[in-house]
Amino acid sequence: MRMVDLIEKKRNGGRLSAEEIQFFVNGYVDGSVPDYQAAAMLMAIWFRGMDKQETTDLTLTMVESGDKIDLSPIPGVKVDKHSTGGVADTTTLIVGPLVAAAGGHVAKMSGRGLGHTGGTLDKLESIPGLSIDQSMERFAEIVGTCGVSVIGQTGNLVPADKKLYSLRDVTGTIDNVSLIAGSIMSKKIAAGADKIVLDVKTGSGAFMQDLEGAENLARMMVEIGTLAGRETHALVTDMNQPLGNAVGNALEVEEAIRILRGETGSGSTGSTDDEAGTVGTGVSGDGHILGTEGGDLKYVSFELAKKMLILGEICGDEEEAQKKLDWAISSGEALERFACMIEMQGGNRRVVDNTDLLPRAGEIVAAKAQSSGYVSAMDTAQLGVSALLLGAGRSTKDDVIDPAVGYWMKHRLGDWVEKGEPLAEFHVNSKTRFEEALKRFQQAINITKEPGEAIKSIYRVY
User: Fold this and answer.
1) What torsion, rounded to 10 degrees, do the Cα atoms 244, 247, 252, 256 define?
2) Together in a domain, 116 and 261
3) N or C: more exposed end of the chain, with fewer CB within 10 A?
4) Taking the alpha carbons of 109, 114, 117, 123 in that order, is the dihedral positive or negative?
């Protein structure tokens, strides 16, 4: 078998067999296939695409390239949840304790943020003392005791994806549905979950900005999971504004704690369009977008948690799952599960009772509206970059994050604001790039005399 023949086959629109895909992937990992041939294959795939069987074979080959996590010591059905990323997407810190409190087991390996998206591990590490580096034995012990643990990925989990992703990043082949789906699903399958729930973002702050592309990606990943023997469901959710109101690591932890306390938002906000299989946010009778306290963070978190409870065979339907989740909040059990996880991973569990123990910025500065009108649109990616410039994110993997900085949104899509009224409160430790961060933030908020079009929190469920 020669690599050049496989490149020509895919370039000409041919279908690669499982053995041919294995030759390509394994050869690139062991060095027998050089960068230039791997890059040529990736470009051929980008132009010609892969069918669902090819994509599944690619995914499973990448899974076999490294370690696979054995979660069998943890009782019950293990359901994993993955988000394609966005701004103020703190769902993992809410969903994990909720599902654990309702009787499930959430054993999750997560990632760090890069660019405008925030990483779950960075958020967790803003909790004093908490470590995301745990042995597999300790990981299982924490899940067995608390019902939930979130840790960093092992060093040798899907090394083929690490190598291929780095090459895709510098060859213009990132945005191919099959390659994206294979990258995500290989890590989910290798992480050992029995079933998988996916949160695929769409909108101005999402990797897949157009709805059609996000829907295609969601369907592709569901098909891969099914073919790989892992029942998989996906929600396509909105990222045309930050999901929550807090943007920044410690601030997002604080918002998650507020929601687990039952202090903000509503788990049953919105309406369901059964025919379309979509769920709406708070939208008025005249179609205007309504600003919602706490944003859509709690609502989306509850919908993800309900799906996980049903897949995990804890609940038979959404009504039962909703009741369990409402109890998890009102009883304080979800908050206790989060505190338990924090403590067993070395952190100060008292943060759930006193969020002042989280890192705090030295100064709070208002980002004011430049005109009066409705908040009609947001460039959410630029809002994420604004937080990055404050120090809340990283441009390269070696950048050091300041856990205390970020901002707290005071208005959401559909809100009327007066000129000079705060759009957000910036939490600042350094003024070095503050003016640039503020300018980007204000330019990313579109204020008009007429409200924007109504949007939905959840567009599709697969």
Assistant:
1) -10
2) yes
3) N
4) positive
Tokens 């994110």 -> residue? 393
- Longest Cα–Cα distance of the chain, Å, equals 68
Please answer whether residues 302 and 324 qualify as being in contact, where contact means their C-beta atoms are separated by less than 8 angstroms. Answer: no
Q: How far apart (Å, rounded) are the C-alpha atoms in residues 333 and 327?
A: 8
Distances in Å between the Cα of 161 and the Cα atoms of 26, 56, 101, 115, 198 are 11, 14, 34, 19, 19
d(CA 90, CA 246): 9
- CATH number for the domain spanning 37: value is 1.20.970.10
**Distance from the Cα of residue 359 to its chain's centroid:** 23
370 and 250, same structural domain? Answer: no
pTM, full prediction: 0.88
Per residue in 403-416, pLDDT (tens digit) is: 999 999 999 999 99
Residue 15's closest CA among 63, 48, 56, 62? 48
Q: Could you tell me the mean pLDDT of each successive run of 10 residues in the chain, 462 residues long?
A: 97 97 97 97 97 95 93 88 92 97 92 69 96 92 94 87 91 91 93 94 92 95 92 97 96 97 58 34 34 71 97 95 97 98 98 97 96 97 95 80 96 96 97 95 96 91 95
Sheet holding 246-247, edge to edge: 246-247, 406-409, 422-428, 363-368
Which tens digits make up the pLDDT trace of 78-134? 999 999 988 999 999 999 999 999 999 999 988 776 566 668 999 999 999 999 999
Integer CA distances (angstroms), 448 to 244, 293, 295, 369, 421, in order: 22, 21, 20, 11, 15
Catalytic residues: 82, 161, 168, 183, 187
The angle that helices 177-190 and 35-48 make with each other, rounded to 10 degrees, is 110
Residues 222 and 276 in one domain: yes
